[in-house]
Structures are given as structure tokens and as C-alpha cells.
């Protein structure tokens, strides 16, 4: 028997990716599709790649439109989720792709987002220790940010195995869809094609405290994070290069074993063979995380890299993965592990 | 009165960029153009953007063809420069865009290139302390690698001012022309468009010891370098994100002052206004280096970023800049500071 | 009960796309995977996006390796299919993604390919009049070329309805994967990014006679075709802009009606709403053809445009679609109509 | 002695390209820089590639700001030029990069732009027969559109030599900068990368009557034009593929001769060797037009292709070229013929 899902924010990139995945989901059927300024528009005009839904007309995002579904996915601008979620019944699974409920520390939220803290929901990264148990009974889920998904999964085993110092440097390149669909001058094709740029230096990007929160929980001690995001000329994909000082006694073999042990049973994480290098192209449209780690003895550092599709595992795929758990479905239901390449 | 330049390796990307710059150089005229496998071909077929040279036919790269010029630029595969240079008179200025003579340490060379060390020539990065004096009388110049140019200039002031620890993390994204023009499967357009990838992890890239050599000389103490190169979908450009632990007493103001002092008189380095973020698009075709530095107090690190065009300042522009010095010309002669955008 | 498919040429782009589709096909399981020079290699090294097949090792392409399957897909260089097919039993369905058996006219073949004509197989474009009947009993199928698929489906209704003169101009832009995976200098990322180029003028491209053959059959009279292919900087996609003089009495309404009638029942062709413009991005990874047609009264011409993914509907998707028919399966089995965007 | 130029609309792409060229112009110095909504902003924030002008602050676009210059370049939205030009003295050379004064036929203007016709100025395409004479004494110049520049120069010799029928089909691919810098959803990098799209069918694009006007004047009889523009994923460049029925008696040799004769003395037009194919990459940043023409005997058509940089020869370079003529300077002054590649 099928369940029904509503998607709020169906006209944006996260909403479009949710719909793409739900169209292939064998247990969830698509119910209400809502939007803000695009309410009243045929989906075919906004998301022409979703041919089976081309004639659906978007409704306005209201609690009434979203009521009566088993699961409601929110893909809204920051700050809009709390009021909506309060109007949805406590038995409805609400999965928020926005940032509002990700951070546990209200001070972090205030510092990076400048608005009052809405609260904290169970964090939808099943690969974190203990996360699956929490998600199984959750009715509210905060989907991780795209950079935190990649960076956390890159370095997690090195920290939990005690091989890395709690001082992590993350430099991550993202495709442009991570910046959303609202037209801004610096996101024009003319500006981004042919250019790589940093767009947040020295810990100013909002994903910084979220990465630190994840790594601190995993390591069991405060982890400092230096995070620099880069924009590169591709629509999708995140490549996160992370490093940390190796703790005494760390060897290449122990590092490899730590990653193998940590990710042996993970359905979406693929530790590359030794010597293999992650590329985002191998993850496009898939919920896959490609991971590689190596020890740089001369520099005394562990280097770990993860590649994901920012819209799939980094947003909508991660959302469906956590929703599957909370809905009692097999975690992998409806989630592709085959990418689109070249 | 003009001087004459020969370019060996005129069919590749570095050679093409040398010719593009020399076509606009008011004091140097273009003499012999040579190539390996492409000898006998009209340049118009290989470098159709160099319209004024379209009907020149490439000669084979031999000492005879290169003889009789004031300056010979070598843009050859690794390992070919030494034998050629030995046949060019000691008064001829020989500027090598390849790696053969960059490293001072024969062990480093052997470890990273696997062939006997050819020797060490004066290093053509005029912005390094003391470099201009050495270049003025040099008749042999080793042009820096593209990554080392960007990474060195990003962190140099932080190290020379004693604000950063000698433990530097470099993650740099490069356009594809840095990998040269020899056709390889992973460099096909179908492979690189839409993908970001790492292609050297944990200090295995050959530019690692060169970065360390530069920073060690600048800091006056051994600097450890963790270097990870990334390939991103653009033809040109390097964006190097570097960081190092801040030493005690470092403040944002002192950091800013160190960069302002170090680069105040540099004709090609532009320290961005505070809050500005480097983008490679602003450097395309120009000999410009865009630099920004910031202090991340929470992470305890200095973050410094440099953007360059890998073929201009990163190769051919750097070569012409050093050649200008060695030829007694004003250093900026013929070198564009205006880029091509969008 | 499942059927088994072999894929010969699994290391190229067409082979990879066949495998991507077959991984999602509910009635066909994947049997032998073979290659030429890449035999012996793990598929994970060559097609890292096909994670479920990462550990499969490619066999050499031999009749023995391909024997014993219900269907054999050939994705080989021109000229290799005939000998292989002759060694596969007459009851095995052989679907050739190459050009060898597409042309009915041996003179055309000789003129454009310069080798002896191998023969003619039933042509795998089910949307052509009468094609489905022929494919139902076929055991040998020639998959259309990517340009012919797009161009034929763009203008077909205008010709069959007698609205267009038999004098068609086709200008079509293709992504780079259409040129295959063999590394060639002009296909390097550095060359193709930032550039649009023609690469066949005045009817010299090999797909010219194939387009003419299709349109001539559809129109029932000889159709002249002027075809110009362009290479544009994207990995996938073909956008074919076609036009022909409008015959007397043609109106916008009659033109629209002709397209609606022709494509009303087609599962993979989507005639855009009036005023809508096809974009290849909406077809990526899908077997979809986006079509639009309009009458230019001032110029006296019908203009018709089709957008496809060259590897899906243009190659592997078309192959699976025809194979479904020949295997007695529903034509749409396993073929996505949802694309990957952005 | 130098002349002074003002640029109105210095914050857009056309304005930026004008400034890039003027920075390299030996006889014109840069005076006032004005903008609309961006008045008051440092140019370094808007055009970071123009390093030598980084600290200039944009003024508001007013007649007073533009007064007192030898030449005023207007790079403004449609409809704003007439009022400004009326306030600039009749001896000031005013060069309008906008469309307002290009069309001779008020009905065409009204039909395609929907506003009253502002008038007609001498048309700044020096390569048209008789144009240089008219431009020499002009004080008002209408710079051609980018598509009309490419399409006109592609087919001009075939028409003036009487080899082609007056029935021309133009399909042209453009980079995204042709659509300007105002942020619109369909111009986002996420939308344009990886996609080719048509964006005007059946003669609806505003450049259609301008192409027809040029070709009609050249042919001396009414020329019908079918024009389809395509957007492809690159920042710059136009590739125009044009064709027309060959008139009786046309041979490949006569066609070649017609192009050689027509363009032998043209400083910016390069007829490619026979068999060569134009690519936009060879024109980037240069005022070059690459042209090729061939006879398709089977189709009975002449096919002619031109590649340009839409911002250089297609806009700002064309503007400077015509201004040079009107200012009594050598036509090629300050205009690059060397492109930036790869």
C-alpha cells in the first residue's frame, strides 16, 4: 500500500530533485505540489525534465494544501519551515530540506543566520553513529546541508577511529545549483562558466557550525573546522577535500582499515580502491558518496575526499533516505546508486 | 631596437600563450617557432587564435633552429630542456617553462620525477624576496609551476611576517589546460565538463616539493605543505585556497597590514579590498594575481586565496616577466593587466 | 521470467549508457560485458557511475563471449558488427548501435564510409510509419544515428502531412559524447569548453544520407537534405533545428494539427505547448524527444526543432526501445521519461 | 594628441568590453564612465577584470556627464539612446551599441520592438559595400547586432556575386553574454550549463529584420531570411550557419573565388583554407571574423559559416572599428586580431 508525499517548494532545485526521486519511488506517490511566487504555474514550465508531472499546476504553500499526507517535504527558503510545521499534525512526517532545525546551539544559529532559533530536529544523516535509531521514530527531520554531508562523511572514520586530530580543514567545490534558483547576478551563466571563485572565507559560510557540530559529536571532543567553499562551473556536485593532522601511530594501513570498517555496511558510500580519486561526475543523479582517504606522511596529515551530487545525497536523496527510515521502509527504497555520465 | 625570441614547443598550450603575449610585446619580435611531432605544420592549424602567425610553418626543435636569438623560451615535455640548453650559448637567455630546473634538491627531483636531476636554475618568481636581483643577471631561468605560483603568492606575506605557522594546507582547483594538450581519456571534454575531481592526494603531485621549497625559503625555516590539486570544468585558471595555523598575537589588522606591505609595490598582484573574494574569471589572459587573506579566529587559522590564469601568470606571463628583467626591460613590458571577461 | 543481454563495447559511451538503462530494466538482466582494448579491466575504473557493476571485469569481444544471450547489443566502431553478427545465432536478437547496417543504398554507404556495404537491417526508429510492425519480428536491428533520430522526428509530421517541400535544411548542435570516447586533440576539454564549431559542412557528415533516407521514406518522394553539425560545450544532448519551404495552403493551425496527430500516441515524444522552446537539458538521461514546430510566414518556411539526449534516445535508449518491441515487451519498459536537471 | 571617450552603460557586458578595448587603444583615452542603477559603485566591483580602472566610480548616465568628449559610446537598454543623443552636440561622435537606430523601416521596428521608431543612423558594419564612405563623415553610428554581424558577413559574398538565391536560412548559436547581464532565471549558470536551447523560432527574434535589411541591400533585391537563434553553454561567441539555394552555374571554384575577392582586403575577416571549419574559440577577445563557405551539390545549396566573438566584433569591437573610421584613425587601431585560447 502506498504512502502519499507533499512537496512544498516544488519550483526550486531541491523541490525538483525531490520530485525526480519520488517519481521513481515504488512506495510513495506524489500528492500536493506547492510553491510561493510560482503558485498557479504548470510544473512543465518550471521543471520541464519532469515530463510525467508536466500538467500539474502548483498550489500555494499553505498548511491546508499540505495536510493529509504521510510525509511532507519542505524545500523552502530559510525561516519558513517552523510556522508551517507547527500546523502539520504531530503524526505527519515532516522532512525539512532547509537549515532552520539543523543546529543544536541557538548561539551558533543566531551568529550565522541572524534570526531567532526555531529549534532542533533529529538530524537526517543516517551514516552518523546512532542516527538510524533516532530517525526510526522521528516525525520531524532536519536534512543536512550539502557541504556538511560531504565533509562529514569524508572525515568521520578518521575521527571516530582516533587517527586524526580535532582540527579539520575543509575546502569544498560546489556546482551552482547549491546556490539555488533565485536569479542573482553572480550566478548568471556568463559569470560562472570559465570561473572558479571562493565565496566565503575564514569560517563565514553558514555551513561551518554544522560541520563542526557533526564532527564534534562523532569525535566526542570539540573539533575545530576551517571551511572554505568554492563555486566551480558545473550545475551539480560537491567535491570536499578535507585534512587533519595525523595522530601519533597513524599508518596508511590503519587509516584504510578505519574507513573500510566504518563504511563496510553503508549502502550509499563507496570507498574507492587505493589510488582511486573521487570525481563528482560518477555521482550525478545518484545517492552515492565516493570517498577516498590517504596519509601524507611528509605533511603529517590525513587527507580525505568525498564527492556527492549536492542535490541528491546532498539534499533530496538524503531527505528520502531519512524519510524511508522514519516511514519504516527499507532505507534504499527508490534511491538510485547509478549515476548519469558522461 | 628589438630583440628576437624563439619559442620551442609552439604547438602546445604554453607555447601558444607565449606567442600570444609576444605578439603584443613592443620590444621582442618573434623568431623561430619549433615543435616536435607537429613540425612542418602551419601554425594556423594548431593555434587558430594566433591569426597574425597563421602562415608560419613550425620547424623541428633543434639547437640550430633556436640559435641566434636573444631569448629562447622552452615549452617542452619534462626532460628535454637540459640537452637543448647545453647547446645554446651561455649569453643566450634561456627561459624554461618546464620543471627540469626548478628544484634545488636532487632527492626531491628524483622522488617526484623519477629521472636524474638536471640541475637548478634561478627561479623565475620575481615576487619572491631577492628574486629580482638574481634574475637581472641570469642567463638561465626556471619558470615556476602554475600551482606553486598561486600557492606561494597566496601565503608568502603571512609567512614572511611571522604570522603563520610553518604548516600550510593548499587545496587548489585548476582548469584543464594545466594538464597540457596531449590527448588523454580523462581530459576529454565529455569527461571534464560537469565534473570536479581530485587527481593527486596526500602530497603525490609533483608541484608539492616546489611549493615547500618556495615557502621554506620565504619563511626561513622548514615549511610543511599538504597539497591537493583538483580539476574543474574550465579551460584556464587556478584558484588556490591555502591556510595555516595563526601564530599567537596574529590579528586581522596585522594580517591585512602584512599583505598590504608585502604587495604594495608589486605590479601584477592585486590585494582585494576587505571582504572581496577572488575569482579566476577576472584574471583570464592577464598576468594578474588576485589575493585575499583573512583570519579565522574560531579555527585559529589564516586563510589566504590566490587566483591566477595558469597559462599567463602561471606559465607564459611569468616567463615573459622574468625575461623582461633579465633582458634589462621594464618588468611589465608587454604583459596585460586587463583580463577577458565574461 | 527474465531475459539476458550482452553488451559488446561496454567501455565506451554508448556501452555505458546501455548498461545504465539495463540496470533499471525490470525484464532484462545483464550478462556478458565485453570490450576491445579495455578487456581485462574492472568496469569501475572505466564507468565509475555504474556502481552496481563496479567489480565486473570486461571480457574480450568474441562470439563465444556473446553467445547464449537473448539479446546482444553491439556498441562497436564502424565495420566490426557484421563479422560478429554472422557468428551469433539467427534467433538471437542483435541490436547494432553502429552505422554498419543503417543505409539501404550501397552507393551511399560506399560514398560516405569508404568501405564495402555490410547490408541493411530493419531500422530501429519505432516512430517511423510502419516501423513497429517490422521491428516486432526482427532479429537484427540497426539503431539510428543520433542526428538522424533528432532531425527525422523534428520534420516527419510536416512531410507526411504534405505541408513541407521536400527540401530540408538541418543545423544541429551536439554535445561532445556523440564523438565518442577515443581521445582526440579537438575533443579535449580545453578545446571544447567555451567554443562552438562546425565540423562537417555541405553534406559531408556521414549522417546526411541517413537523414535523407528517413525523410524520403516518410514523404514518399525524394527529399533533399542540407545538414550541418555543430559541436557545442556540453557532454550530452542534440538540438536539431530543421526547416523547409511551406507548401501552399499551409497554415499555423494545420501545422500544429499535423504534429498533434502524428505524435498523439507516441510515448516518448512530447510536443511542447505553443510558444514553448525545446532545450536539451530537459531530456538528459531520458528517452524523451521534445518537439516544436512553427510556421514562419514571412520567410515562407516551416521551422521544426527537436531536442534529445544523444546517448539515450539518440543511441542506447533507442536501442532498448526497439529491443523491447522485438522481445515482445511493452515498448516503454525500463526507459526513463524523467530527465536529470539542472 | 589623444581623443577622449565616454562610455554610458559601463556596468554591463557591452560596456565592459568597450572599456577593455579602449584600455588598449593608443589614440583614445577613457573619460566619463556612467551607469544606471550601478551609479556610485566602484568599477572594480562590477568589472574586476578591468584592473586599471578598478578605482573609478561610476557616474549617473546624464547628458552633462557625457558632454565634452570626442566620442560617446552608448551601451544602454533599448529605447534610451534617442533622448541622450539629442542632448549631445552634433559634432560629438555618438556610437550606439543598442538597437534603436539600426532599422530603416519604421514598420519593422514597430513590429519587432513595439515602440515608436527613433530613426535610422548610419550602420556600423564597415565590410558592407559603401559603408566606409558613409561612416567617414558620420557623427551618429548604429552598431549592428551580434547575430546580424555574423550572418551578414557569412553570406554577403554569395549574394553580391549572384551565386545564391535570395532565400537565406540562418541558424546561429550564441554564448550567454549576448543576453546581457540582467539576472533572469533562464540565464542562471545552473540552467545554461549542459543545455542547448532555441529561444526564438520562426522569425520572432528581433535580429531577423536587421539581417534581412543587410542582405537585401547587398543583393539588390529582397532577401527572405529564416532565422533561428540558439543558446549554448559558453560565455562568448556566435557561430552562424547560413545557407541558400545555389543559383544555376554556381561551382565550388566560383564560390571560393567570390569569397576570396570579397574579403581579400578586409583586415578582420579571415577566410579559412578550404576544408577548415570555423570555431568561436579562435575569436575570443579578437575583432576577427572566421568565414568558410562550401557548395553542397547534392542539396543544391551554398553553406556559409561565420564565427565571431559576440562582444568584440559583434558589439564593442565593431563599435570601435566604426568609430576609428569616423574619427579619421586607421580602422584597425587598438583592435586585437589575436584571440585568447584555449
Automatic annotation (TrEMBL), chains A, B, C, D:
Q: What is its EC number?
A: 1.2.1.38
Top-level taxon: Bacteria
> What is the enzyme's main class?
oxidoreductase
Q: In which pathway does it act?
A: Amino-acid biosynthesis; L-arginine biosynthesis; N(2)-acetyl-L-ornithine from L-glutamate: step 3/4
One GO location term (cellular component): cytoplasm
Active site residues according to the UniProt entry? 146
GO BP field: L-arginine biosynthetic process
Task: Output the InterPro entries linked to this UniProt entry.
Answer: AGPR (IPR050085), AGPR_AS (IPR023013), AGPR_dimerisation_dom (IPR058924), AGPR_type-1 (IPR000706), NAD(P)-bd_dom_sf (IPR036291), Semialdehyde_DH_NAD-bd (IPR000534)
Where is the protein found, in the record's own terms? Cytoplasm
- What keywords sit in the KW lines? Amino-acid biosynthesis, Arginine biosynthesis, Cytoplasm, NADP, Oxidoreductase
Gene Ontology terms for molecular function: N-acetyl-gamma-glutamyl-phosphate reductase activity; NAD binding; NADP+ binding
Q: Which reaction does it catalyse?
A: N-acetyl-L-glutamate 5-semialdehyde + phosphate + NADP(+) = N-acetyl-L-glutamyl 5-phosphate + NADPH + H(+)
Indicate the segments forming the Semialdehyde dehydrogenase NAD-binding domain, all copies. Answer: 4-136
PROSITE patterns per UniProt: ARGC (PS01224)
Function, please?
Answer: Catalyzes the NADPH-dependent reduction of N-acetyl-5-glutamyl phosphate to yield N-acetyl-L-glutamate 5-semialdehyde.
Question: Family assignment?
Answer: Belongs to the NAGSA dehydrogenase family. Type 1 subfamily.
- What protein name applies here? N-acetyl-gamma-glutamyl-phosphate reductase
- Organism, by scientific name, is Allonocardiopsis opalescens
Q: What is the lineage of its organism?
A: Bacteria, Bacillati, Actinomycetota, Actinomycetes, Streptosporangiales
Task: Please state the gene responsible for encoding this protein.
Answer: argC
Amino acid at each position: 500500500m502506498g504512502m502519499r508525499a507533499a512537496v512544498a517548494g516544488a519550483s526550486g532545485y531541491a523541490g525538483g530533485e525531490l520530485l525526480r526521486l519520488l517519481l521513481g519511488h515504488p512506495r510513495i506517490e506524489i500528492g500536493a505540489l506547492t510553491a510561493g511566487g510560482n503558485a498557479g504555474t504548470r510544473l512543465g514550465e518550471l521543471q520541464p525534465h519532469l515530463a510525467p508531472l508536466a500538467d500539474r499546476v502548483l498550489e500555494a504553500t499553505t498548511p491546508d494544501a499540505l495536510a493529509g499526507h504521510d510525509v511532507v517535504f519542505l524545500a523552502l527558503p530559510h525561516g519558513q519551515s517552523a510556522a508551517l510545521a507547527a500546523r502539520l499534525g504531530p503524526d505527519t512526517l515532516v522532512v525539512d530540506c532547509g537549515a532552520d532545525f539543523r543546529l543544536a546551539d541557538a548561539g551558533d544559529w543566531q551568529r550565522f543566520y541572524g534570526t531567532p532559533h526555531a529549534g532542533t530536529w533529529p538530524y537526517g544523516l543516517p551514516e552518523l553513529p546512532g542516527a538510524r535509531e533516532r530517525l526510526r521514530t522521528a516525525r520531524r527531520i532536519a536534512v543536512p546541508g550539502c557541504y556538511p554531508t560531504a565533509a562529514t562523511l569524508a572525515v568521520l572514520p578518521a575521527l571516530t577511529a582516533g587517527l586524526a586530530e580535532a582540527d579539520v580543514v575543509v575546502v569544498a567545490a560546489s556546482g551552482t545549483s547549491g546556490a539555488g534558483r533565485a536569479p542573482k547576478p553572480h550566478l548568471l551563466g556568463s559569470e560562472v562558466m570559465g570561473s572558479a571563485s571562493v565565496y566565503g572565507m575564514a569560517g563565514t559560510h553558514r555551513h561551518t557550525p554544522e560541520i563542526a557540530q557533526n564532527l564534534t559529536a562523532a569525535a566526542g571532543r570539540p573539533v575545530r573546522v576551517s571551511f572554505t567553499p568554492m563555486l566551480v562551473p558545473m550545475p551539480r556536485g560537491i567535491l570536499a577535500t578535507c585534512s587533519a593532522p595525523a595522530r601519533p601511530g597513524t599508518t596508511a594501513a590503519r587509516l584504510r582499515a578505519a574507513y573500510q570498517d566504518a563504511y563496510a555496511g553503508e549502502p550509499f558510500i563507496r570507498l574507492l580502491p587505493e589510488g582511486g580519486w573521487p570525481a563528482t561526475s560518477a555521482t550525478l543523479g545518484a545517492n552515492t558518496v565516493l570517498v577516498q582517504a590517504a596519509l601524507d606522511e611528509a605533511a603529517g596529515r590525513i587527507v580525505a575526499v568525498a564527492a556527492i551530487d549536492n542535490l541528491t545525497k546532498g539534499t533530496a536523496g538524503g531527505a528520502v533516505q531519512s524519510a524511508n527510515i522514519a516511514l519504516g521502509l527499507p532505507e534504499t527504497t527508490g534511491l538510485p546508486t547509478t549515476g548519469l555520465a558522461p
